[in-house]
Amino acid sequence: MTRIHIDEWPPYSPADQAKKDNVLIAAKLMVNAALTAPSTGGVPGQEAEIAYGQKELELIAREMERLAHEQVIERLKKPFLYEAVMVRESDAVVFLGNKRAHETPMDVGCGLCGGEPNCSFVYERLNHYNGLIDATDRRRETAIRGPVCVIRAHDLGYAIGSALWVAGNNFIDAKSCYSVGLAGRNLDFCMNSEIVVGILLGVASKNPYADTPPNYHLTNLAKQVDAVRKITTITRQIPNHPYHTFDPAKKKKTDNTGKEE
Asked: What backbone phi and psi angles, to 5 degrees, belong to 31?
């Protein structure tokens, strides 16, 4: 009989990998939900990508740590570092982006972008030819190269909500993160989009994205396990009696007559 043993520990063991495979199936269903979510004018604008595997997640986490130390403002530094740990603790990451928000405004003059209600706010700040925006200039002075069409960006919200609904109904812990999306976009996940959000996915007895202690980038489970391994290795090197001749059991005491007390 073929058996599939599933457990969350140790990480990336065959038992844990079987659990991650279950999450990957749900991640693909989440993408279905995101791509079929409502979109402005019925025009498709969402794209999705799934990150899976220890090496891929580690690259994302390290990019988040780089952003924390080099680019983001001080009050976002720890959230980026904490969420980098959460990436490592995840089973998969779903990236969702909107590829139209920075390139093809809806042209309805809504003014949601913060400018005049005629879309001039977007066109005057981007290179374009007769309304065709040149998106080949990908240089950025800010985290997101704007301005973007906000009504298009709203579509991404519908996609994220639909994807999270699928995760919840499949009993998968999920957390949508700007930090993860920013790092993923820098690594060419959803490369056609300027606005990208990353959704962390995990299955564990304890939700890995809630009840985060202070300095989580230093006190997380992986750090604690590594510390125990270090201590165990050191204590084994302390001079001790040979295990095959030394009995650490306490010897029984006897009185003057030789009887046990």
From this structure: -65, -40
Q: In whole angstroms, what is the distance from residue 86 CA to residue 43 CA?
A: 34
Cα 175 from Cα 198, distance rounded (Å): 8
Beta-bridge partners for 196: 97
Query: Which two three-digit tokens encode residue 251?
Result: 């010897």
Domains in the chain, CATH or no CATH each? 14-215 (3.40.109.10)
Residues 6+ apart with CB under 8 A from 64: 80, 81, 83, 84, 87, 179, 180, 182, 183
Q: What is the pTM of this model?
A: 0.87
| Pairwise CA distance, residues 179 & 80, whole Å | 6
d(CA 58, CA 236): 31
CA atoms of 109 and 5, how far apart (whole Å): 57
- What digits encode the pLDDT tens for the residues 155-190? 999 999 999 999 999 999 999 999 999 999 999 999
Buried/exposed code over 231-241 (b: 16+ C-beta within 10 A; e: otherwise): eeeeeeeeeee
